[in-house]
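[job 4417] fold queue: 2 targets
>>> target A
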Amino acid sequence: MDPVKEENDDIINDRIEGDFYSNALHLRFNKALENRYRRIYARRDRRYVRSLLVVLIVCYILYGVVDWFLLGEAASNVWMVRYLVGAPVLCMLWFVARGRWVEEYLQIFITAGILMLVITTLWMVTFVGGVAVHAYISSLLAMIMGGLTITRLHFNYAALTASIYILASAFALLPMTEANPLVTYYLWLNVIAVSLCLVAVYTYERTIRREFLQKILIQRKNNELRKANEKLKTLVDVDPLTNIANRRYLDQVLDQEWRRAKRRNYSIAILMVDIDFFKAYNDSLGHLNGDSCIQRVATRIGQIMRRPGDLVARYGGEEFAVVLPALNIDEANRLAESVCDAIESLLIEHPNSSVSPYVTVSVGAAAMIPVEPYNKQDLVAMADEALYQAKSQGRNQTAKVVIPQQVSLLDSD
């Protein structure tokens, strides 16, 4: 997984790219982004550094064979530095790198590790004489070049490490130049090689930072696009008056639930809810009050349907539909009765209703196990038929319709 994507991008503002950097070299971001950059890449680089340390420890210990080959019995002093100082310190560094806390100080940790290798190797050089000294100086040069380039040091820490290395090597090797003029060549070679390494480190870090910034900006654009799509989806799927699902979204969900119920062979129910004498309500109290009434009814129905899979939608005008997966007809009818009672208990005055002084609803309930030759339109038609029955029987009540052939199935569902 891309580590950049593990963080939120709230800290990115609408600014041109140059404003993200705090220096002309483009090696440091503004404070908030810099902290994020270091946190992300320290988390990634800590594992990488631990792997490098394992390889380094193995090579460092095995190099003792080369000590013996080059120095013979005189290797004892070199081994003292290698095995009593260098190897234990490297092992300690590996152990310390296991802790997450080291991520905050990872650059200092890497710098200290490289300088420890440099100092111990320079210490070994002081015990070596003759032609063998060139092998150790060469290994020292290879060590600093590798340390600067493959450890993912930031440029400022690499520059600090290189400066200390040049000073330390000059201090240790300059006394040898009179006896061995070739050491002077190594000192100049050190300066040139380290300078080239610093150029490589600078180029690498600047490239990594640019890629990091590009990923952040792309992620931000993707998040903006996702939010825009979600907003668009809300506008498309939600009824603007009631803030519940609209007819379009109802059709989508009913199709999905129908297919699921068909695969799993369980019942799906639907309620059709209609506000009684709503035209008379509008005529007497006005459309603004009518809109308020629809909103309150929609909210109350939504409060009754508490299961995650239930869907309340505005079917059209003053009519609502409720999709109820995995309910049989009796369960659906009990919910329908609860809807009737709950709406009347809102005590919304209705001066022109012949069944109650308050706003009431009629509810039709239908349930079906999806089997051939029926489809979801048949279920909706059944609920609509039940609603018609409830209204023709006096309103403010419920009615239910069941396909005769499915009665036993629904009762056992």
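>>> target B
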Amino acid sequence: MVNTANDDLIQRASEFAVNAHKRIDHRRKYSKQPYSVHLAAVAKILAGVCDDAEMIAAAWLHDTVEDTPATLYDIEQAFGSAVATLVEELTDVSKPSDGNRATRKALDRAHLAAASARAQTVKLADLIDNARDICDHDPVFASVFLDEMAELLDVLDKGDATLMRRARNTWRKCREKLTRQHVRDTMWAESQTSASGPDDPFHSSPHLSRLFTNAFVAQDIAEPLRSFDIRQAGDEIREIMSEAELDVVCLRDRGLAVGFARLGEIGRGCCGEYLRPFKRSQILAADGSLSDVIQVLTRHQYAFMALVGDDVGAYISRGDINKPVVRMWLFGIITFVEIELTTLIQQHFPDNGWRTLLAPGRLEKAIELREERLRREQRCDLLDCLQLSDKGRILLGDKRLLATLGLDSRRAAKRVIRELESLRNNLAHAQDIVSYDWAQIVRLSRRIEER
């Protein structure tokens, strides 16, 4: 007998995931196919060993929180707490500031080691599909990925035995293929840029990373968090929150902060009935970087901040990313991206050899602007008078520059430039950058911290 409820859950999850990834034009790195191709493959692998609708739904949704604007709260509201818990177990917990790739992967591996058998089974299906794709297209990065996959397989011991055997067999075949191709692990050290993916728009120098990770911190944008005792009446708390326009409050038990409650969830009875415990992945230090803030808000609706010791006293929501401090931080990052592009163009095209790659009309505008600046006794080069989009066109017209920037196609380069321009324009015109540019904000913040 067909279980229509289970079929409906899987169908809704697939539609949610496909649309979420499609809205940000998320594609597979190598094939450029829609990202849903990978999600469908993972769900199909999983369906071959189980008929658990919640697990198959989680297979469709497993990258949604990491890669799209959707949060774990959104998943919970749409599909229930069981699916949301699985997605949370499958979502990386490391932050950019936790350290280098090896350190971050160790944290994420420990998170998966503690995950349920159901979540570990979904992860095995994910590893199988990713290993095949990476091994077929990128032997350099595959060497690193397979090392990390082997370490993951050692801790996914609660996962389905059939998928574990298949995953180990996939790992073995990929490793043999690399050996036949004589790909050495040491090539990774010489090719780190290729592993950072086609979304990496620039090569940051160390001083840039230090500047933007240290200049602004979490407490610069945090809001005070009102607190109430868990024994107070829910009706009373809800009325206070409505009058004060509070979306979230801290709940305390004998003075200790134990969790939070949302306005839309508090009802009758004791407000403690509506408590949501703080998750470790939601807590930030007061001096946490803005990159860490954005990483937390990628997964959760709120980030909470400990002001004194471990006591939570402030919070940050995605709406706070629209604050002037963050906008200034992002605008500065984009400015440095443009500086890096300018430097690369100067290096690749001495004596303004880039002129032939610009449309005559765009070149004419740059010449007019330079003449006006010179008339005002403002010394500048012609390249300084180009718009970001103009520099993007030069980038698109030269394969050497694409390769230098780690961009493996004109399509990837066009998307990066388009998203940078969108974010910069929305910053300049005081538009809502969270609604329109969240995915690009996440990518930029990760790149700045990882460099």
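[job 4417] complete. Note on B: The beta strands are 223-224, 227-229, 248-253, 256-262, 276-277, 283-285, 302-308, 311-317.
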